[in-house]
Each structure stands twice: as C-alpha cells, then as structure tokens.
Amino acid sequence: MFEKILIANRGEIACRVMRTARRLGVRTVAVYSDHDRDSLHVRSADEAMRIEGYLEIGAIVAAARESGAQAIHPGYGFLSENEDFAAACKDAGIVFIGPSPEAIAAMGDKAAAKRLMEKAGVPLVPGYHGEQQDAALLEKEAVRIGFPVLIKPSAGGGGKGMRVVTDKQSFASSLEAAKREAKSSFGDERVLIERYLDRPRHIEVQVFGDTHGNVVHIFERDCSVQRRHQKVLEEAPAPGLDSKKRKQMGDAAVAAARAINYIGAGTVEFIVETEGDRAGALSGRFYFMEMNTRLQVEHPVTEMITGLDLVEWQLRVACGEKLPLEQKELAFSGHAIEARIYAEDPEHGFLPATGRLVHLAFPADTAEVRVDAGVEPGAEITPWYDPMIAKLIVRGADRAAALARLRQALAQVEIAGPRTNVAFLRRIAASRAFGAAELDTGLIERNRGELLIEEKITDETLAAAAYAELAEEQRDARARAAGSADPHSPWFAVDGWRLNQDSHHDFAFLEGETPHTTRIRFLEAGLRFAVGGREYSLEGEELADGRLLLRLDGRAFKARAVREGSDWHVLCGNDYRRLALAPLTVEDDSAGAGSLAAPMPGKVVKILSQVGARVAKGDALLILEAMKMEHTITAPADGVVKEIHYGAGEQVLEGAELVTLE
User: Fold this and answer.
1) Cβ atoms of 29 and 67 closer than 8 Å
2) Which residues in 435-525 belong to E strands, given as ranges?
3) pTM (predicted TM-score)
4) At residue 221, what are phi and psi to the nearest 5 degrees?
C-alpha cells in the first residue's frame, strides 16, 4: 500500500478519499487554490500545498514530487479524465490512481468511443459520431436521423453543452450554442448527434479492472432523475431491472472495459428504453451512451448495497494488487438512494447560488444514513467551483424502506445562507411518481407543477421569526437591566408594556423587497400572534438543541431561527427564509421590478440586441455564462434598448445592471 498520496481535487470528493486513506494508514496531501485556503479538505489532510488552480498539471505533479507522494488520486471533475495529466504522472514516476492515458483518451472522445463500442458489439443509439463538423453536414445528419435529436459535446459530459432540438428550423442556433458551451467547458467544440429517446431511463454500470487482466462489474445504478441533463437522485439497484437484464448490461459493460484494457474504477452509462404505455417500465433495449473513466459522484449507493469501499479498491488496484473479489463473489442486498444537495435555486432555473453557510446541520452518520460533505458551517459557497454542499445517502431493506429513510433524513437537513435544493429534494422524495418508481429522465420536467413551487411564506415561519426576535430582545433587556442602577424598571421589560400604550410588540420583516408585518400581543391569558389579518394564540420555548418548539392555537411545530446581523434565517418545516428586521413603515417600491440585473456573477458571452432596438417581452438580449452554463437574459417587458452596459467577454458581478430599457 502507498505511504502517501496527493489528492488533486477539492471539496466533498477530496474529503471522501481522505477518509479511506486515513483508515488504511495512508498519509494525504491536499492541494488548494487561494479561494479554498480555509476549506475543509485543506484542514482534513495531513499536508496541504497551494497551487494556482486545479487544472494546473505541472503544478500538481510538482506538488506531488515535493511532498513525496507516491501516487495522485484525481477524484472526479477537473483533471480526472485528462489523458495528459495521467501521462504526466507516469512520466514523473508517480502512480495515477486511475486508468491508463490511452484508456482515458479512447473514452474521452465520445464520438470515437462510440465507434469503438460499435466494433465491440455494444448497442448504440442511432446517430452521427463522425469527425466532420461542418454545420451543413451536421444539419443534414440530423434530418437523416429524424427529429427530435440530441446534440452532445464529443469531449465532455455532465450535461454541459447538450441541446435537444425538435425541428430543423431551430437546429442551427442550437448547434451554435452547443458548440460554444462545449468549447468553454471542455476546450473542444466538436459534437455528435443522436436520436433523442422519449422518456428513457439512465442506468449506469460500475466496472473495475486490474493490471492482471481481471474485469468485473459491481452492478448498476439508476440515475434517471435529472435536471438540465444533470443527476439529482441516484439509486441502486435499478428499480424493475430483472436478473437477466442486469446480466446483459453487466456483460456489455465488462466488454466495453475490456475493449480498452481498462484498469481501475469506471462507469459505463446506458440509455434504456421504457415501455410507452407505462412510465419507467423497462423494455428489452439498452444503448451505450458513454464511459466515465473515473469514480462517479454517486458511487456511495453501490458501496451501501455491497458493503465495499470503492476508493480502497482504487488504491489497491493502483498498487498492483488483484481485484479483491471475483465476479461470482460479488453480491448486493437492500436498496440505497443518494440525494445531491446543491446551493442552487430550483424555482429559478436551478441557477447556482453563492453565500456563507450561516448554519449547517445533517442527520448523524449511521449504518443506514451517510453524509459525504466537503464544507462546514461558516464556509463560503463561491461562484468559482461546483456548488455542491453534500451528498445524503440512505439504505433500507428494500426501496420502500430506503425511501422512507430518505424522507426522514432530508427532513433533518438544515442549511441557512445560500438558497439550496433541499425543499425540492423533499418534494421529489414525497412525490407519487418517484414513490411508484415511474423513473425516466423527464420525471422532473413532467411534474414541475408539483416539484417546482414558489411557496408563500407561512404564518408559522413568521411566528418563529417574531418569537425569536422577541426572545433575543428579552435576553438583551435582561443583560442591560443587570448592569443598570434599577434592574427592576419596567422600561427594561420586553412584555409590550409602555406608558399609556397598548401591550403589544410589532415586528416588520423584509424578504427581499416584500414586507411582512407581525404583532405579538401580551395578554393575561398569554401571547397572541397576528399577521395578515389572522390571529393565533402563541406559546414557545427553546429546546436543548437550539430549536424552537412553538404552538399556534395549540398546534405544535419546531423551527430554527439563526441570527446574522439584522437578519433572521428561519427554517420551519419545508420552508427556509432569510428575513431582515426592518422599520415598521416599508413602502413597496417597484421601480426596479424590470431591472435587467445579473442574477449571479459571470461573463457576458454574446450580445443579442443593440442600442435603439425595439424589443418585445421575452426577447433575448444577451447570454451570460456562469458555472460553465449559459443563461439567456430576456426583456421583462416591451421597450427600447437605451443602453447595454457590458460587451462580450466582460465579467460582471451579481446584481450588475446589464441592459437599460425604456
């Protein structure tokens, strides 16, 4: 076994690799950029070395040499599927914990990989995987394949650059956007075109190979629940997959790995057709989609049903050992589900969110519940990297038990600061379609009316904010009274008493630009809470864990309220709100309602209008790139473009005015 390894990654996956290394007695070296100087993965490692960025091959190899690391684990993303990085490690005499540069190259070019798989007899979706990239030729091929078609980058994955095109008229503009995003994300604008399958399942097979010629598959994972072609929930085993189909897909995955002499952990991804008359039901046809030559984000669900540590397997194989188990020795039991927790805004196009994690709490790790996190309370979610906060993985004796545990575990997640997808994940887990395993890649879009809801703030949330503010003022009043000459003066009380005035206390909160005015009245019978013309009896107490136990008209509920400056972060049931304590008189100024401000930091990649142009509501004005994804800024109303404040290629900050309309 290695004595020391360097982990060429950050966040959750770096921390995950470190846990296994620590258990095996292997010392770890972290690398970090200036943005990550205080990150959890830096503090978790035995050593840490600064680099300019996570794509700097020379700097990472030099750090490994300087630290005395014998091997480099690439994690996922960044350089994990870069053949030049694997070759540089080899040239430096450092073990790359992954496949050979040749295997990475063979599968890194998606079009070339499909041609290779075709020769190996692995079924493919009908499409064009050729080298010629002339726009007219690609359009001709799309017509030949038949619309709808899917445009995909040849050199990358993760949903970036993918476009579904439903007709010939929109093909040219979609091709241009796909090529531009592919170039930005992967440095290669080549694309392939495939028939777009309606309501397919996305099922992948975990494979492992060693240097002794052994290759096995470690069963499958269902990754069908996606948004914008990116995975949200994954589970194993795939619901509805029988043993015969499992063997066929496993054999095909092993054949794909053998075709390139694969070593280490890899994943062969398949698109599986579903029966048209029953959503999620599996038919007999599956097609090779791509092979990821690395450990997958969702590998924990495989670990939960097999009891294996796939990172340990990676390290042992990289050391030259044989695979720990043969195919006939591999088995699974139970069912596991993973939920990816992101800082993002599902109700607004899943835009990535940024900000400080003011409060962060997860359910405790057990044999049935696991949390893989790369951040801790107080950490900053920045625009520079993927906004994943954590992965929540649960296991049960069967899918029903696992799903019940997932719902329970998600209810225990508390995150205050940036917007997150936690409430969205809870809705998916509670939905009829997911509960019935009616899985396909369109599940979220098809059920968006149920899953993507901008819910109104609840009276319970406002009651929690008002009660928390009252309790805070009471604590401050007691502290002031204790240090005064007359600690018993009624002027220090926070019970609503004022000379010649009613006994009540008003609180006004601002949520963005929306005001919420509340009142707590002090009566002999107890507190009364009023909001929006409604009034309730109010009781409350603080629990040992810091949460509030409140009762409105006798109905009990729990909430957490966290103070940050003049703001209250309130988590109440499925509701999370950031409420600013405000003056009681708040005018509803809607002058900026049509402001075309940047929704997040990013770069302007294309201007689609010009000064003086007349535009209609919904017209595209410019394209903003953020987090390697493109976002189209549209006109909020009819008008004339008075000024365009930025040009293509310029960086903008969140809230910067992009275009002025009149």
Assistant:
1) yes
2) 504-511, 514-523
3) 0.81
4) -135, 140
Catalytic residue, from 16, 27, 294, 560: name it: 294
> At residue 348, what is the residue type?
H
Question: Nearest-CA neighbor of 234 among 428, 69, 519, 446?
Answer: 428
Q: Tokens 């064009």 — which residue? A: 128
**343-379 confidence digits (pLDDT tens):** 999 999 999 999 999 999 999 999 999 999 999 999 9
Q: CB neighbours of 142 closer than 8 A, spacing ≥ 6? A: 128, 149, 165, 168, 171, 193
Indicate the angle between helix axes 310-318 and 299-306, nearest 10 degrees.
100
Question: Which amino acid would we find at residue 177?
Answer: A
Q: What is the DSSP string of 293-360?
A: -S--TTHHHHHHHH---HHHHHHHHHTTPPPSS-GGG----SEEEEEEEESEEGGGTTEE--EE-SEE
CA distances from 457 to 40, 460, 531, 571 (A): 33, 8, 11, 11
Contact between residue 304 and residue 371 where contact means Cβ atoms under 8 Å apart: no
Is 427 assigned a catalytic role? no
Query: Do residues 375 and 381 lie in contact, with contact meaning Cβ atoms separated by under 8 Å?
Result: yes
* 3-state helix/strand/coil string of 584-644: CCCCCCCCCCCCEECCCCEEEEEECCCCCCEECCCCEEEEEEECCEEEEEECCCCEEEEEE
C-alpha–C-alpha distance, residues 101 and 399, integer Å: 39
Quickly state the pLDDT bin for 654 (edges 50, 70, 90): low
Burial of 186 (0-12, 13-18, 19+ CB in 10 A): buried
Does residue 150 contact residue 162 with C-beta atoms inside 8 Å? Answer: yes
pLDDT in tens, 370-417: 999 999 999 999 999 999 999 999 999 999 999 999 999 999 999 999
How far apart (Å, rounded) are the C-alpha atoms in residues 468 and 484? 24
Backbone angles phi, psi at 348, to 5 degrees: -125, 60
Which phi and psi angles does 543 have, rounded to 5°? Answer: -85, 170
Residue 13 CA to residue 373 CA, distance in Å, equals 8
